[in-house]
Amino acid sequence: MLNISKNKIPQLAESDKFYAMKLLNTLQTGRIVAYCLVGIFVICLFVMVLPWQQNIYANGEVTALTPQDRPQTIETAIAGRIEHWHIREGQFVNKGEIIVDISEIKDKFFDPEQLTRIREQLQAKSNGLEATQVKINALNNQIAALQNALKYSLQKANNKIRQSTLKVKSDSADYQAEKLNYDIAKKQFLRQEILYKQGLKSLTELEQRKQKFQESQAKLIAVENKYLSTRNDLMNVKIELNSIQAEYTDKISKATSDKSSAVSYFSDATSEFSKLKNEQANQEIRRKQYNIRAPQDGYIIKTLKEGVGETVKEGEAICTIMPDEPAMAVAMYVKPMDVSLLSKGRKVRIEFDGWPALQFSGWPSVSVGTFGGVIDVIDFVDSKEGKYRILVRPDHNDDPWPKQIRMGSGVKGWAMLDEVPIWFELWRQLNGFPPRVQLVDPSKTDKYYEKGTK
């Protein structure tokens, strides 16, 4: 048993023929298994210390980075009937190229000469405005002339009043003087009459004195009449002044009223003229809407209306256009628990549907068929099914994205976080801990040239 004897049993007998001897032999398979297990353990220890790139997995689709580069529907601004298609599906069109012609279906715009008639109305209204403006100018001149005539007439009447006032004063002085002479003549006549009764004066002297008294009385009456006549003339001049003022005020008021009517008509006519101009502009713009044109360069990918003679409503879509050479991007949808770990400037590995790829999420450097991207937009609200959308643009430091990809095709993406050892990642996964991340400064990431955003 201890294999110390010089007489060895295997030399005396063939041990392979005995079952008991077979059981006493040491199996080589056990050593091989042991060596394999030790090797696997060593390899596992080595693998455990290898770096592992933490990541967040998400699905999404190909889209455009800017809204003007995304597929859009071409809508008609007015209701109409399709008359002729100028394109077919899949055709490339330039900006401004006619896609489809439509005709009018509203009875208000059936008249083909409606625009011409509106121009005629505008011309007639314009002539009426010119005539009204001439009338307003004439009334302004008439009012100015009446005001000047009133001014001169008032000056003339005031001069007459001043003259009459002076004449009244002069006649009043003459009247007072003659009245004084009359009193003196009367007193002299009375004294003469007393002296005549006393016999001191002769009858002839009395009659002479009486004659002078009568002459003074007649003269007083004449002067008084003249004074009263002058006063009446003064009153008449004042009345005439008021009459002149009233007459010219009436004329000026009438001319002002006519002017106000003309100005009111001019304002109404101007408003109608503006409405006609607006209607003319609307008609001209509406006629341009009969030809629906491409808003930008692109491909017609789908027509939503078929045939000729079909009617379309206002704002109804007739076809879809895909802009030419869009700035491609990827829209990915991540869970709410993962969105807080992302930031602008984070690297993303992308796998496009239909593009052969072999992805190692923890070792992106050894992945095959995947492409690089950079997070450019993170939505502040959830987009669909409680997930948040992120927009990923191409990483110009990595391989360019394939030109064969189409808008809307599916993608798979891995947002790259920090590097950790594999043992740490296994330990984190087993305990359900979140990944360890450090925020990325977007100012230190590469700048990306976007089409049309220079």
Helicity, as a percent range: 40-55%
CATH topology of the largest domain: Helix Hairpins
- The tally of strands reads 14
**Any idea what the radius of gyration is?**
60 Å
What form results from the Cα inertia axes? Answer: elongated
Which structural class is indicated by helix and strand composition? alpha+beta
Number of domains: 4
Strand order of the largest sheet: 1-10-13-12-11-14
Description:
By secondary structure, this protein is α+β, with helices and mostly antiparallel strands. The chain folds into 4 domains: 48 residues; 136 residues, Elongation Factor Tu (Ef-tu), domain 3, CATH 2.40.30; 64 residues, RNA polymerase II/Efflux pump adaptor protein, barrel-sandwich hybrid domain (OB fold (Dihydrolipoamide Acetyltransferase, E2P), Beta Barrel); 175 residues, Helix Hairpins, CATH 1.10.287. The protein is built from 7 helices and 14 strands. The strands form 3 sheets. A 6-stranded antiparallel beta barrel has the order 1-10-13-12-11-14. Strands 2-9-7-4 form a 4-stranded antiparallel β-sheet, with no helix packed on it. It is elongated, with a radius of gyration of 60 Å.
SSE blueprint:
Elements: H1 9-12, H2 19-24, H3 28-48, E1 51-64, E2 72-75, E3 80-85, E4 92-93, E5 98-103, H4 114-198, H5 203-288, E6 291-293, E7 298-303, E8 311-312, E9 317-323, E10 328-334, H6 336-339, E11 347-352, E12 371-384, E13 387-394, E14 410-421, H7 422-431
Antiparallel strand pairs: 1-10, 1-14, 2-9, 3-5, 3-8, 4-7, 5-6, 7-9, 10-13, 11-12, 11-14, 12-13
Outline:
With 454 residues, the protein is an alpha+beta fold. Helix content is 48%, strand content 21%.
